[in-house]
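ugh ok fine here u go
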Amino acid sequence: MRLLTPATLLVLTSSAGAQCIDEFVFPGAHQDENGFGASVLLDGDVALVAEVGNDAVALGAGAAHIYERQAGAWTLASTLAPADLDAHASFPREMRLSGTTAFLSDTQWNSEQGRVFVYERGANGWTQTQVLTRGNTPFTRFGRRMSLDGDRAAILSDPSGEISIFERGAAGWAEVFVLPPDPNFSAYAADLSLSGERLVIGALNSSPDDNVLLVYEPDALGNWTETAQVRGTDADGSEFGGSISIDGERIVATQVSGDPPHLFELQAGQGWVETVLPLPDGNFARLGARGALDIEGDWIVAGHAFGLSHVLYWRRVGQTWSFHDLVERHGFGWGGFGQSTALSGTTVIAGAPQSFSPSGDRVGRAAFLSTSVATQVCASQPNSSGQSGVISLGGSLVISNDDSRLLASGLPANRSGLFFRGTQTIQVPFGDGFRCGGGQIARFGVQQTDAAGQAQRTLEFDPGSPGQLTPFQTFTFQFWFRDPMGPVGHGFNLTDAVEILFCP
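structure:
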């Protein structure tokens, strides 16, 4: 385990229950109660971590730290803190990240009028390119809630409830539409999330049964109008919709009572179809609270920072969403783990703002977790044994355990073959079957199937070993074998394939 400065990040990988720690760091200044990790964001190889108690500009003014992943390691790239922040601004009040653009709000500015700083990464690193404001009225709290996706942003003014739609053009960011609040709800825009041309808003009411998700989309003239009201089954009360995340045609929402997250998928002719995600046994009150819920593609992550601290994963395989894994961290060094979470690809960042440093200061930390699974992919075709070849993984996915082995079965007996791996998954006709490993190919040596039509090989991870298998990289494994009596007549065939991302 490596101790890094000036901030500490923890990289873990979760696979079938395995959690792999690579590195972690604390804020360099070691300020007590500085809230490092109170809010976290992640997009590809860029992460954003809030430190709302940072004193560099003024007492408790706050700052945000940019981390970038280079050569597999997360390093501090920049610290963002406007020079004119007020004391106790707790900046950033809200922050959003999309690609190389970051929005950070300062709702305390100018008697709580509020402003939003725009930062972009260019040739000279991260620089402030614009400051967004709205009017000149105190207590507008512009930037109280925000969402950012590409060249479009949605920014809430609170308590008015108005949502400004901003778009980026040649001259920078400009307000193009103002969405008025819906008077039917007492807490309009408790949370909001934007994906492309779809905005979803959590609308709460004094009557819990009336809590809904409101979906808005722009018409041909650019006017944003409500297109759907989405209600959850048995989501009565407990602030359903107080935490939401949208990715394309999928919305996930939670409520503070500890019930499972509710997933909604837009289906042709059916509207938004609900799935209540499975939840393991345990007390998960306030699971996926605001800032601790995210969805991307076939993955959902939710943090739970009350009592025992957890980060929970769900994954969609085929048409089914299932609970995938739970990462638990608690004790002296992990206060508030999961209070904030964000997801990008197979990597998750989780904040633990109440954790202690080795010196005993409650400074907070942010943790990177990568989730790995062995996933069956591609297809196999029948061979002369009357079966279709299947490949699987034995042992664990943890390199340091040195117990990973590949197993192939359903093969002709006593035939030559070999395991190989690729750096990509493809599916192209090859012999009597399909080749599924693409990209850079490495072969592991010829061997014979046994009398039962099986073959196995222990994987080697030492430098210079065949295939150069490394952690945090996905490989596709397959078995090729001779089959002169095969049904198609090409003389050889292959198993299906398995994608594996290994832990260190």
